[in-house]
């Protein structure tokens, strides 16, 4: 399941896992975006669903639709983020809450809804797209959000790791684009690598 699928990392990750024979639940806010992603995956067993990650009821409903179709997921990838340039003092309190809701709270909602069942089964990977390995004053809200993601990964590992759920993040430290140092298809390989790790070899973050 990819929450926050789009034409970059989200689609590349879905394509990488579908290539291994997996079905895929795709979640995005825009119907056009999620349908385009599904079409790119061709004849694969794919379910596109729309949901705004800041709408808890709507997001949980979307997650349920995917679970009803395919069962409890083996892999969940939270890839939603609000990427914007802002400095401390530029945003209102409400704007900071909106950014935090996308960057962190949506991931919390997704984990709270799916991780218990994954733990009950005894296996699975919960992977989050990170960023900002170092905070940047020109991207204050994103820096704060990605710091929150690191903490969330640690909390998920502490809560569910012993039950077999691998929580980790892929920290992307530059602008994503084909043919660059952050090519989405190359990035997607790191998600697959994390999912393939045996528990004794688990790492909680890959920085690229």
Task: Give the arrangement of secondary structure elements.
Layout: E1 2-3, H1 9-18, E2 24-28, H2 31-40, E3 46-50, H3 56-70, E4 75-78, H4 93-121, E5 124-131, H5 140-160, E6 165-172, H6 184-196, E7 205-207
Parallel strand pairs: 1-2, 1-4, 2-3, 4-5, 5-6, 6-7
Protein name: SDR family NAD(P)-dependent oxidoreductase
GO molecular function: 2,3-dihydro-2,3-dihydroxybenzoate dehydrogenase activity
InterPro entries: DHB_DH, NAD(P)-bd_dom_sf, SDR_fam
Rg from C-alpha positions?
A: 16 Å
* Subunit arrangement of the protein: single chain
Find the CATH topology. Answer: Rossmann fold
Tally of distinct domains: 1
Class per helix and strand makeup: alpha/beta
H/E element string? EHEHEHEHEHEHE
CATH architecture descriptor name: 3-Layer(aba) Sandwich
Q: Please bin the fraction of helical residues.
A: 40-55%
Task: Summarize model confidence as the mean pLDDT.
Answer: 95
In total, how many beta strands?
A: 7
* First-to-last CA distance: 22 Å
Strand content: 15-25%
Question: Reading side by side through the largest sheet, how are the strands ordered?
Answer: 3-2-1-4-5-6-7
Spans of at least 5 consecutive residues with low confidence? none
Largest sheet: 7 strands, parallel
Shape: globular
GO molecular function: 2,3-dihydro-2,3-dihydroxybenzoate dehydrogenase activity
Protein name: SDR family NAD(P)-dependent oxidoreductase
InterPro entries: DHB_DH (IPR003560), NAD(P)-bd_dom_sf (IPR036291), SDR_fam (IPR002347)
